[in-house]
Amino acid sequence: MLNSLLMLLQGSALGDMVRNAQYLYPVLEAIHILGIALLVGPAFAFDLRLLGVANRVVSVPTAARHLLPVSHVGLAIAFVTGIVLLSAQATVVANTGAAPWKLGLLILAGLNVPIFHYGVYRQVDEWAEAAVTPIAARAAAVVSMVAWIGVILSGRLLAYT
Fold it and tell me: Whose CB among 77, 99, 123, 124 lies 3.0–4.6 Å from 35's, allowing a Cys bridge?
């Protein structure tokens, strides 16, 4: 079923346009990288706050309120441009050695968000000003950082594996 969806995407007018327009693919790549930067930069700043590495002057809820909406915009940009880029060679990309890693790490990063927000973050008022955040918050931060570094690395390896 996944292969059928990939073939449908690759054979679509979108895939044809991305493959054949002279500068569309590199422009989309540039926008995709911008999306990743907007996603991962603020997410890492928030993760570092959870780990106690970043400035503790800003409370965790304040950091979340200012950083995470920027990450959401980056996620939207990276998701849309990623699908459009995938349309150019969906079956080729899916058969690379890095593709299962990227998909698995994207799933891990995606699952980490609700686990954090519906888990330890529900009691953030109890530990928002604490010098050391709960172990579950720090674990979520580490999972987030490792997953996103892995997504970026495996994304780069798609072209070489």
Answer: 77
Burial class of residue 132 (count of CB atoms within 10 Å of its CB; 0-12, 13-18, 19+): exposed
Measured CA to CA, the distance from residue 125 to residue 17 in angstroms comes to 50
* Token output for 114: 């609700």
Nearest in space to 42 (alpha carbons), one of 27, 31, 58, 30: 58
CB 105: neighbour CB atoms within 10 A?
Answer: 20
Q: Determine contact, residues 81/35, Cβ cutoff 8 Å.
A: yes
Taking the C-alpha atoms of residue 113 and residue 92, their distance in angstroms, rounded to an integer, is 30
What is the maximum alpha-carbon separation in the chain?
55
DSSP for 4-43?
HHHHHHHTSHHHHHHHHSTTHHHHHHHHHHHHHHHHHHHH
Q: How far apart are CA 95 and CA 90, in angstroms?
A: 9
Spatial separation of the C-alpha atoms in residues 151 and 155, rounded to whole Å: 6
